[in-house]
Amino acid sequence: MSSPSPAVERYDVLILGGSMAGVEVLYQLRRKRRGRTLRVGVVDRQEVHGYIPLCQERLSRRLHDAHARLHTAGYVTAAPNAEMIVGTVTRMNSTARRVFLEDGRALEAEMIVVALGSVLAPPAHRIPGVEGALGVKFDHEAHEVRDRLQQLRAPSGPTQPRVVVVGGGISGVEMAGELAWMSQRSDDLQRPFEITLLHSGPRLLPALCERAGTLAADHLEAQGVDLRVKARLMEMRSDGILFEDRVPTTPEQLEMPTDLVLWAGGVRPAPVLERLGIARRDGWLTVNRELRALDADGAAIEGVFVVGDAACVVDDDAVWPTMKRAIECLWQAKVAAANLLASLEGAATRVHRLREDFPHGVSIGARSLVVYGPLVLDLPRINTWFRRFLMRRYFARYGARARG
Length: 404
Known about the structure:
Blueprint: E1 8-16, H1 20-30, H2 33-36, E2 40-44, E3 49-50, H3 55-60, E4 69-70, H4 72-78, E5 82-86, E6 89-93, E7 98-101, E8 106-114, E9 118-119, H5 139-153, E10 162-166, H6 170-183, E11 194-198, H7 210-222, E12 226-228, E13 231-236, E14 240-245, E15 252-257, E16 260-263, E17 268-269, E18 280-281, E19 284-287, E20 292-294, E21 300-306, E22 311-315, E23 318-319, H8 326-345, E24 360-364, E25 367-372, E26 375-378, H9 380-403
Parallel strand pairs: 1-2, 1-8, 2-5, 8-21, 10-11, 10-16, 11-12, 19-22
Antiparallel strand pairs: 3-4, 6-7, 7-8, 9-17, 13-14, 14-15, 18-19, 20-21, 22-23, 24-25, 25-26
Helix pairs in contact: 1-8, 4-9
């Protein structure tokens, strides 16, 4: 005899994901009188979230973990009519607005906001063995990489340990810079290690201006990083990597002994996005300019919104070139919360605005750049301070509420 199905817990609003985008949706809802009356459930498998924009500095301990964590559950439960639901989303019936969790619970809501985001993972189907590369985005990943580095730097470790970073975008440049900072602070118990940055493109920081890429290369090489541009990773082996060097006229394949490979070559859609009943484009969830989720026919799904990394804005079949950056979460969350309330009240909705450029801070170990369009400022102390100031302001936005 089969066991009875569990009772379905019902909410006015369900927010799937409690990191930067999800918690901002709750914040925006609670700013409105109508929003404060709604029963809101925030679903996430973590009660505490590390500050992702500075994850590389958390890895090196230049920024201590304790100073870079948002106590999400504390903020959520301090808000009126809100509940933190600790669990893992496995699938969703988007038309019925019913969510299923790994532990068997089922949740329903009149409105759902998907903020489940992305994972930092290599394309294992394209590069043999690359699943052995490690990424650093979440706390447990930083702990694993830190442990591996400590093993390599111990007196009993390899004579000259080599760490390879794959990817020359902002994340890869920052990762290589932090590793250089760590290596230069070695002692008798923690030996230095060699760092190689592998980038398939012709220059670093391809999303930013050429001068930013040139300065980043200069700063990395000055800190001892072995920089390889036009170098494509082809295979990862137990004792090293095989890569194609395209700097000479005739590309050649080279082998390099390595002890640790770190992936910074881009994020991938979280696997759960496949099971949410929302149309996808290259794995990402499609939305219209109101951030409403779309079905396979391109029609908006009633009562379902998407924000954060997972959202792919499709406007008249053209895909917006939005960047997966932290500030985008705040902009999208504000629009989604406003449209959610407007839908409940039968009012007019608003559209999300495309912002193709925004000032970027790029930390490069002992150096740091501020980049806005063609303008590049080499201001290490000011930029480092400002990036941490933004983090503290972000935490204060929710932390004061959590302390009650």
